[in-house]
């Protein structure tokens, strides 16, 4: 994987859009997020990368609030720059590991959560690296705890083997999650905002798989 060319943005611009848990007390960190949400519908993208997906979502739904989470400062810098260029005031970013965020989630935000997206997570194709995959039982259980009855979890991938991994993990937790689609996923992507990565995947002829699940009714 090629490294991104490092770009610089003013510290003031970074601070305008990015919260870093490591530099905040818990109650201040979550208090800022709660104030940002302001009783609006909340959408979270995990591993948000350069912010293309979130910016398109935010532009088309200005009344909703969006949170991007990533622990790569280089891609997050690009996300901040793109967000600022598009004057999206309804987006903030969390410079943190998504596993930590969901494990320590501020439960008063639960009622506001509309959707959680995990778009094209790294498939880590070599077996010895599978433990690095984002989709793991522990994370899915933590996400389930913060979902309300209407929250939808979307997971998108173009990696054929990872599809089975995701399906197996969700199936093992069928007491917690119910699929929107009978086979757990669909290959229809009309509802997805196009990003550079997705367009490249489609151009290569890759199939895009989209899982959508909600909390089990039992």
What does this structure look like?
By secondary structure, the chain is of the alpha/beta class. It has two domains: 1-105, Rossmann fold; 120-217, Vaccinia Virus protein VP39 (Rossmann fold). It has eight helices and nine strands. It has helices at 11-17, 26-37, 52-60, 73-85, 98-103, 137-146, 160-172, 196-203; strands at residues 18-19, 42-46, 65-70, 91-95, 113-119, 152-157, 177-179, 185-186, 209-215. Strands 1, 2, 3, 4, 5, 6, 7, 8 and 9 form a nine-stranded mixed β-sheet that branches. Strand 3 (65-70), helix 4 and strand 4 (91-95) form a beta-alpha-beta unit. The longest helix has 13 residues, at 73-85. The radius of gyration is 17 Å and the shape is globular. The model has no long low-confidence stretch (mean pLDDT 93).
SSE blueprint:
Layout: H1 11-17, E1 18-19, H2 26-37, E2 42-46, H3 52-60, E3 65-70, H4 73-85, E4 91-95, H5 98-103, E5 113-119, H6 137-146, E6 152-157, H7 160-172, E7 177-179, E8 185-186, H8 196-203, E9 209-215
Task: Provide a brief overview of the structure.
The protein has 218 residues and is α/β, with parallel strands linked by helices. It has helices spanning 11-17, 26-37, 52-60, 73-85, 98-103, 137-146, 160-172, 196-203, and strands spanning 18-19, 42-46, 65-70, 91-95, 113-119, 152-157, 177-179, 185-186, 209-215. Strands 1, 2, 3, 4, 5, 6, 7, 8 and 9 form a 9-stranded mixed sheet that branches.
């Amino acid at each position: 994987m090629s490294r991104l060319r490092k770009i610089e943005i003013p510290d003031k611009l970074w601070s305008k859009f990015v919260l870093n848990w490591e530099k905040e007390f818990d109650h201040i960190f979550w208090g800022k997020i709660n104030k940002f949400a302001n009783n609006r519908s909340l959408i979270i993208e995990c591993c948000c990368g350069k912010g293309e997906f979130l910016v398109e979502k935010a532009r088309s739904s200005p009344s909703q609030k969006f949170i991007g989470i990533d622990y790569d400062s280089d891609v997050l810098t690009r996300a901040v720059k793109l967000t600022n260029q598009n004057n999206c005031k309804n987006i903030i970013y969390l410079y943190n590991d998504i596993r930590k965020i969901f494990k320590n989630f501020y439960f008063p935000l639960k009622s506001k959560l509309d959707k959680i997206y995990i778009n094209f997570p790294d498939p880590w194709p070599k077996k010895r690296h599978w433990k690095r995959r984002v989709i793991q039982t522990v994370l899915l259980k933590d996400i389930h705890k913060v979902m309300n009855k209407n929250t939808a979890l979307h997971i998108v991938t173009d990696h054929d083997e990872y599809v089975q991994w995701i399906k197996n993990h969700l199936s093992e937790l069928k007491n917690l999650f119910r699929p929107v689609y009978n086979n757990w996923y669909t290959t229809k992507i009309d509802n997805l905002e196009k990003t550079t990565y997705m367009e490249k995947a489609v151009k290569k002829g890759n199939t895009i798989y989209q899982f959508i699940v909600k909390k089990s009714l039992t």
